[in-house]
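Following up on my earlier message about FE2/S2 (inorganic) cluster. Here are the inputs again, as you asked, copied directly from the submission form:
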Amino acid sequence: MKSLYGRQVPEEDYELTRVDPGTPMGEMLRRYWQPVCTSEELTDLPKRIRIMCEDLVVFRDKSGALGCLDLHCAHRGTSLEYGRVEDDGIRCCYHGWKFRTDGKCIDMACEPEGMAATMDVWQGGYPTMEFGGLVFIYMGPPEAQPEFTLFDIIDTAGRDDVVLRGLKLWQDHSLGWVRNCHWMQHVENALDPWHLIVLHEMISGDQFNSVLTLGDWPEMDFEETELGVRYNLVKQLPNGNWLERHSEVILPNIVLVANIHQRGEQPIWREKATEVIWCVPYDNETVYGICICAWPAKDGVPDPDWKPGTDTLTEIRPGQLRERTYEDKQRKPDDMEAQEGQRRIPIHGAENLGTVDKGIGMYRRKLKAVVRAMRDGQDPPNLVRDQAPNGGFETSCWNTVTPPDERPSVLPEG
Ligand code: FES
Ligand SMILES: [Fe+2]
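Thanks, got it. Here's what our run produced:
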C-alpha cells in the first residue's frame, strides 16, 4: 500500500483556475460577451447576478433600455436588486438615487435640486446586448470590446425554419443549473465521450436511452478545429449502420453537443448541434450553463412537438435532479456526482491522464497558450473585430449516419 500519511497535495494551477478580476484566466474570459440571463428573466424587477466573482444587477428600464451595474449603490452601498425600475433608470430603495442604464446618477431624492449634476456620480457597470433570447455583458477593457461572435447554427439571417430561444433551468441539475464545481470541469465533460459508456451505461444503467451507449465500444480520437477541440467517434450500431459523431468545445467556454437521441435508423448527413451552450463561471468553484437553441419553427413559433438534441431543455432525466437521496446518488451517479465529485476546484497536478484524456489535454494546453499570448499583447481567438464570416463561424459538431458498407472515414480503419 502507498500510505497517504504525510501526503503533499499539489497546488491548483492558478493560471487556469482563477477567474477573479485581474487573474490571467479571468481577464481572458472577460474579453468575450458572456451570457448572464435570459431576456424573459428581465421583468419589471431588477435581477441580481454573479459572474466571475463580481456581483452585479441587470435590469431593463421602462423605455426598454438594458443596464448592467455594480450591485452596490454608489451612495452607501445598498443592493440595487431592491431598487425600483423606472422609465429612465433604476432608483435605489434606500435614499432614492437614480441611475441611468449607463450608470450616470441623474437624481438624488433627498439632496437639494441640482446636486446630482454638481456631484456627477457614476455607478460603474458593463456594456450589455441581447441576442437569441439571452442577455450578454462585456466585462473586459472598453477599448478591446468585440462584436458578438455568431456561429452558423444560430445565424438565422434569411431563415424562417427556426426561431432562437434563450434557455436555462435554474432549479434542476441540467442545462442552466448552477453546478457546484469549477467551470472547466463541465466543459471538459463534453470532451469525454468515454464517460457516456462507463458512467451513463455500465455504472448507472441506460441513462440516455441512446444508441451511443449500446453495443460495441466505439473508436475515438480528438482533433483541433478552427474554433477549439472536438472528439471524433465512429461506432457500428446494432442495426449495422455506422455513426460518426463529434462534440466540440469552442474556446474559451462554449460547448456543442450533437443530438444524443439519434438512433441511427436512417442515413443522415451532418446533423449539426442545435444549441450553443455557454459554461460561465459564477465564481471560482461554481458554474452555470445557459444556451441559445435554434428551435424548429411551426407557424412562426417554436414547434412544441420538437425534442431538443440535448436531453435537458424540455424534460429532465431523473439522474439530473439535484434533490435525490444520497443513496440514490451513490447507486446511480450522473454527471452532477461525477463532476462535482472531482473537487470544487480541480488539482490538475494530482491527476494521472490517460489516452482517453487526450482531448482534455489539448483543451487545457490551448487555454494556457491563449492566456500567455494575451500577456504578450495578442488577441484571444474566436473574436470578431470588424467583419464576421458570412453565415457565422463554422462549427464542427454533428452526427452522421451511413449504411453498413460505408464506414465513415473520419478515423482510419482498425
Ligand atoms: S444607499 Fe443608495 S441611495 Fe443611499
Ligand atoms: Fe454525461
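One observation from looking it over: The pocket of fe (ii) ion (ligand 2) is lined by residues 189, 195, 200, 335 (CB under 6 Å). Hope that helps, and feel free to reply on this thread.
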